[in-house]
Amino acid sequence: MELQDIVNPLFLQKMSIKEMEQLADQIRAFLIASVSKTGGHLSSNLGVVELTIALHRVFHSPQDKLIFDVGHQAYVHKILTGRAKDFKNLRQYKGLSGFLKKSESEHDVWEAGHSSTSLSAALGMAIARDLNDEKYHIVPIIGDGALTGGMAYEALDQIGSLKKNMMIILNDNDMSISRNVGAISKGFEQLRESRPYHSLKGEVKAILSKTKVGRSMLTGLRGVRDFFKDKIIQSSLFSDLGIEYFGPIDGHDLRKMIRIFSLAKDHEGPVVIHVVTKKGKGYRFCEEDTTGQWHGVSPFDPATGKPIKKGDTGVAWSQVITNTLVRLAKQNEELVVLTPAMMAGSKLQMFADNYPKRIFDCGIAEEHAATLAAALAQSGKRPFLSIYSSFLQRAYDQINHDICRTSSPVVIGIDRSGLVGEDGDTHHGVFDVGILRPLPNLIIAQPKDATEAQHLLFTAFKQDKPFALRYPRGSRYFAEVKQLMEIPVGSWEAYESQSGEKAFILTYGDDVDVIKTEIFHREWPVTVVNCRFFKPLAEAMLYSLAEKQLPVFVYEPDMLAGGLSSAIMEYDNDHNLGLHLLRYGIGDEYVTHGSVAQLRKHLGLDLKHFMEQVKKELG
Ligand SMILES: Cc1ncc(C[n+]2csc(CCOP(=O)(O)OP(=O)(O)O)c2C)c(N)n1
């Protein structure tokens, strides 16, 4: 059978275990071949091939609801629900999403991208199901990484109290993106490794006899003895919350999983099935990866595992920041770094290698990380909170309540700000300026290049108040500056054209050099301004722009609402400046996935289109 011919998962009902095992091999080969061309989430998907087959064999999607946490590990689900043929366009503009999308398939019953929402989703669906007096199964699938997120515990608390029927699959591979962290993950490790079945026989019986499903399991125990042979114990984490726990079971053993799921699916009340999988299973490079390099990949050569570079020769923006942090940490022993589970993505390994005691991976716990940073700052430390723009949204209240309200000197490194491309609507970092700007005490800045980044980071640690420094995905030319300098807070820099001055373009980040080069090359009479501070604004410069009575273009590839032009318009209005503003940014929409270049075009923000607008205005 060709994977491309699959229409829905019903075909699994007719398959023998052996055939399903062959299908698993076929899917793995397909995933490696396909993701090597498009890029995407590889390791997590290789790990859940058998698990996803078993779930689709036992449950009847879409009547039964399979809810994948995050959704980055749902490629196998996509294949089994008829989307293999679309994988050539995975994560590309107008192609298949890298996450689940209701618009793509009736089998995608929940959309995510951010972690730890699946249990709340499951409970919401279970409450609605019961109110409607309907009968179907609800199966959230949550990783041990996603279980480091606080939301999961808020949901478990209520799940344990409401006792709605659902089967929670804990997909435990001991990895978040990198090695998982935290005490709870250690607890899973103990469950996995230290309680062999033979020492627990009595305990197993006792536990099983307590529950309806357990009693039915005991009745059929002879038949199912082989799958209990491994290990089965009661975990206090879940059972203390009133949620039955079974496991751990081997997540690559189709026969065992199918039998356990079939037995447990009619369990009264919520039940957790602890499934142990190997992240990256079946592909050497992924299996051996402990740092998370293979979690999400760009196109690569499947034979060598080497990335296929697309001429991007710079240094990653996150690496520019890490290099500078290492340098600053040498001079300032109070400097500490916090990351909510993004050690690999934010390229912090070099800091960890240099200062292992001064970096803390908090797990997928952005809220906690932000408050932790506030407390560290209030205790005399100088924390750098490294956080992706889109995940920072989770920590808004903590940044407001704990960091900004108290004016705690936390440097917030906003990684992946701006459009991020292929990860799409859940991941674009386009809201942070708009949501952070109203917070009193906070300085917000973005460097135009790696040199300015070093000076701005140095400047950030000189302030006795919170400072947010944005930097995007992608890379820039990097050379370590000799002398770090403090940049005056609230200053902008203007680049005048040799050809005169008939308009201004205000922009920030990577776009400053791009637009400046274009204007100078065309010899247009336009001054380009690097608005490196969103807050405070360069007030004197705004006055001087107003005096000149020339058109002022604001080019901001982030949300218009609350962004740079909003800030300028507020100032303009409050001070009667009378600026002639024309603004270009993202309107009232969630931006889809695709390359950043395609997305800019889609939004009418590509350079060519913008230049045409400027030309029109200049006449
Ligand atoms: C709120 C939030 N923070 C960070 C991330 C980035 N992220 C995506 S997947 C992942 C690790 C998930 O680990 P786990 O749930 O164990 O799944 P696995 O990939 O190991 O199967 C992280 C940190 C995210 N998606 N959402």
Characterization of the model:
α21 links the parallel β17 and β18. Helix content is 40%, strand content 16%. The relative contact order is 0.08. The protein folds into three domains: 3-293, Rossmann fold; 315-476, Rossmann fold, CATH 3.40.50.970; 493-618, Rossmann fold, CATH 3.40.50.920. The chain contains 25 helices and 21 strands. The strands form five sheets. A seven-stranded mixed beta sheet has the order 10-9-11-12-14-13-19, sandwiched between helices. Strands 2-3-4-6-5 form a five-stranded parallel beta sheet, sandwiched between helices. It has a five-stranded mixed beta sheet with strand order 16-18-17-20-21, sandwiched between helices. α3 packs across α12 (254-264). By secondary structure, it is of the alpha/beta class.
Summarize the SSE layout with pairings.
Blueprint: H1 17-38, E1 40-41, H2 43-47, H3 49-58, E2 65-68, H4 75-83, H5 118-131, E3 138-143, H6 150-162, E4 166-172, H7 183-193, H8 201-210, H9 212-219, H10 221-228, H11 236-239, E5 244-250, H12 254-264, E6 270-276, H13 284-288, E7 296-297, E8 315-316, H14 317-331, E9 335-339, H15 349-354, E10 359-361, H16 366-378, E11 382-388, H17 389-392, H18 396-404, E12 411-417, H19 432-436, E13 443-445, H20 450-462, E14 467-472, E15 475-476, E16 493-495, E17 503-507, H21 511-522, E18 526-530, E19 533-535, H22 539-548, E20 551-559, H23 564-574, E21 580-586, H24 596-602, H25 607-618
Parallel strand pairs: 2-3, 3-4, 4-6, 5-6, 9-10, 9-11, 11-12, 12-14, 13-14, 17-18, 17-20, 20-21
Antiparallel strand pairs: 1-7, 8-15, 13-19, 16-18
Helix pairs in contact: 3-12, 5-6, 8-9, 14-20, 16-18
Residues 44, 47, 70, 72-73, 114-115, 143-146, 171, 173, 175-177, 279, 341, 364, 366, 391, 394 line the site of thiamine diphosphate.
